[in-house]
Amino acid sequence: MTLKIHPINYGNTTMDSSGLVLFRNPGVLTTVPTLGFLITGGEEPLLIDTGARNAEQFAAFGMVHEKTKEMSIEHHLAQHGLKMKDIRHVIHTHVHIDHSGQDYLFPMSTTVMMSRRELEFAASGLMGPGMYTATETKHLIDRLHTRGALRLFDVDGTFEEEIIPGVAVRLSGGHTPGSISILVETDEGLANIAGDIAYHLGDQLINPILDQAAHEPTITGNHAMSTLQEKKAIKRALSGTRFLLISHDSPALISGGKVVGRFDGAIDNPKADVTTAASYDLLARPQLAEEIEAA
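C-alpha cells predicted for Glyoxylase-like metal-dependent hydrolase (Beta-lactamase superfamily II):
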C-alpha cells in the first residue's frame, strides 16, 4: 500500500494581507488559494475538505472569491479517474465556509467526518456568522440527524482515530478548538494535512515577521485560540512531520522541525504528488543538503 496525496485548488480568494499574518501589510490585498487534498492508494480514496459554496459568501466581508470550472470537485476527481460517487468519506480539518461549503454536493450516503468539538464550536456563534454560516451549519446538523451521514471524532490530544490503514486524525487546535490534522503515512515519511494551522509559511515560519526567538512562529490574523495555543499547535504540526500541507499556501518539506523546501507548482496541478521530496524546491540555506540527507 503506497499512499499518495494530491492537491485540489477549490478557488482563489483576494483579501487583506493582515487577515493572514498578524499585522502584516494592513490595507494591502493579497490572493491565496484554498486547497483541499485527495488521498489515493489506500483502501479507498479520501477527500479532505470541500471548498466554498459560492463567491457571494465572501463578498459580504469585502473579499473576492474566484472559482473556475477547473476548480470544481468533479474536475479534480476526474484527473484520477474518479467520480463523486467514488468518495465515501469526506474529512474536514475544520468547517469554516471555505472548507465545508460544498458538502451539500455529496449525498447523505457519503459520510462527512469532523471533530465533535468543531461542530460544537460552529454552532456556538462565537466567531459570528461569517466563518460558520447558517447554511453550512444547518447542513451539518441535518447530517447529524441522518444515520451514517456524519462521523464525529472525540480526539482530545491524547489519542488518534484511524480512518483507513495509514491514515489517522488527531486534534491540532490552534486555529479553532476543533481543528484536526490528518496524518498520512507515506513511503517518504509522515504527511500532516493541517488545515489553517498556518496561512503563510514564509512570513510565519521561514522568516517570521514578528518574532525574534529561534523556532518561534508568527501567528495568523484569524484565529479563535490564544496566541500561545496557536504557537504550540504550529510547533506540534512540525514535529515528526516530513510533509506539511496547509490550506492556503504551497506544500512544505520539513526537516528537523523546519521548512526546508516548497512545492509551489503543486497548487494548480491536481495530478501532483506532494509526498515525493524530489518534487520540492529546496530553500537556499547553508548545510541544507546535509539536513535533507540526514532526514
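The mean pLDDT is 95.
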